Every structure is written in structure tokens, then in C-alpha cells.
Structure prediction request, 169 residues.
Amino acid sequence: KLAKFEAHGVASEFWAYRIAHPRNTRRKRSELYLEQTARPNDSLRLFFSERGNYDFAVRQRNRDSEGAPETEKDTNESTLEWREAYVDWSPGLFTVRVGAQQIVWGEAVGLFVADVVNARDFREMILPDTWLIRRPQWALDLVHNGGLFSQEFVLLVPRANRWPAVDSD
Prediction:
């Protein structure tokens, strides 16, 4: 019996223009997000996701400032990163998830009241969706779903938030 395999992706474009002095294009980014899921059997699932982007406006600004100190150049020109990579195992009443993951305990629009497990990336001037703000963390997540109640145990490697540079937009 072959494992079930699914792949999904999202391609997007993002453009930002500064209307104050100096007027210019701040972002012209192409982005691709991919995720793959494999199910070897009913109780086992493997999940991987990747994200990459390239910002043409940042590239142009860096090219225009050729010879400038590295501290004056924008480091957000391109990114290629894996987001999540974990294994789910569900034998009966328990679910075990091991790997780099996002652990979500609650979500409200624009607020992180109970969603406090994962570190976040605040480097964008207009915040992206919450699933892109969260930084996946290496963790063991054990959930017991039994009858009237459920319990969750999390063991993780802490990760810091990403903050924008002091002089950034």
C-alpha cells in the first residue's frame, strides 16, 4: 500500500510605496509558500512546509547603495527557509507531534491573548497572517483527548522574537 501524499502552495505578490519623503517603492516582493503531507498509514503523518521570497525593490536599493557600509543595506532582500517539519503519531486517545512546529492555543484577530507558545517575527511594516508571524519551534507536543476533557503537555526549545532594525520602516 502506497502512502498518501498531498502538496499545496500559495504564490503571492506584495507591493508597498512610501508616500512621505523620500517617495519610493519600499517593497516589491514575490513569495512562494509550499507544504507537503505524507500519510504512510492511518496513525502516522509527516508534514513539511517551506517559504521563500525575493524583494526586487530591496535589491534595487542595495544596488544603488553599492559601496555603502553593510549596516546601511537592507538584509531582507531574499529569504529561503523551511517553516515546519514534524511527525504526528495518533495511537488511540493520544496524539504525539515531534519536530519544528507551531503550537496554537487560541487566536483572535490581531491579538495574541492565549497564543503564547511560539516566538514571532515582527519585521514587516504590515503584519502578515498569524501563521506566518509565528516562528516554528522544535518541540514535543503530547495531547490526550479523553471523554470530557483533554490535556496537553509541551516540551520545547525556546526561540526569540525577531524585531525590525531600529531605523527600518
